[in-house]
Every structure is written in structure tokens, then in C-alpha cells.
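TL;DR need C-alpha cells for one chain.
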Amino acid sequence: MLLSGAGMERRVTMATRNELIQVLREQYQQARRAEKSQILDAFIAITGYHRKHAIRVLNAQEAPRTPRPGRRVYDEAVREALIVLWETADRICGKRLKALLPTLIPAMEAHGHLHLDDTVRQRLLTVSAATIDRLLAPVRQKARPGRKRRRARSDRGRAF
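>> reply
TL;DR here they are.
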């Protein structure tokens, strides 16, 4: 969002915008029609909002923000079992590991390499590939420090 005036443009921070909304919201809601128009014109000039959006923002009731509870579905036991399975599967990506889990878990349990509780087993079988990647991200960072991307090959883009 830009503030423009006398040929100079600068950004209005989100915190400043929120403070302005809090101050003007109460004034706007208690004002009469002519006063609302003046408040709205000033608000639009400062924020750069479209008129209809500005009206909605100023008419909205402020909802108290409550932090979402940090409900963890996959606990440390699931993460540890996932690390063992990932290492066994030669550190493959989460998408391939997800497809392999239904056959890998029973095989490792049958050979005595893995002992899982029923809830941990069920959670491992229902975890998504994206969640597998998120759970394994810290381990991957430690496994390959400093390697975030593949290096570009020098012969790419050339016509042979």
C-alpha cells in the first residue's frame, strides 16, 4: 500500500494501517452520512483501498483474535518411527515413502526391526506425503548440511 503526496510515494505498514482502522472504525460507525463520506474519503486517500472495500473494512465488527490451539496429531513417537522408516527406505522423498509405508511397516515388524503401537502404526499409515516431508525436514537438514539445491549444470540451455 502506497502513500502518495507531492510526487513522493511511501509504504504504509500493516501495523499503521491496523491502528488507523481501529481509530476510524468507531468514528465511522457513529457518524452521520455526510461525516461518513468525509471519513471514507480520507481513509481511501491514506490507504489506497477501493471505496467499497474501505466501507466493508470500516463497517466490520472487530473480532477478538484467539490463537489456534497447537494440536499435534503426529507426536514424537510417530516422528521417530518415520525417521527409521525413511532411513530404511534409503532416504526417499515423502511422496514415495507414503506409497511404500503399507508394505514397509509390516515387513520391518515381521523381521523384528520395528515395534510399533497400534495408534502409531495407524497414524503412520494415514499421514500425508506433505506432512512426512515436514516431519523429516529437520532430519534432512542435518543429513545434508549446506545442500539446499542442485547446482545448475553448465550445459543447460545450449543447443547441440
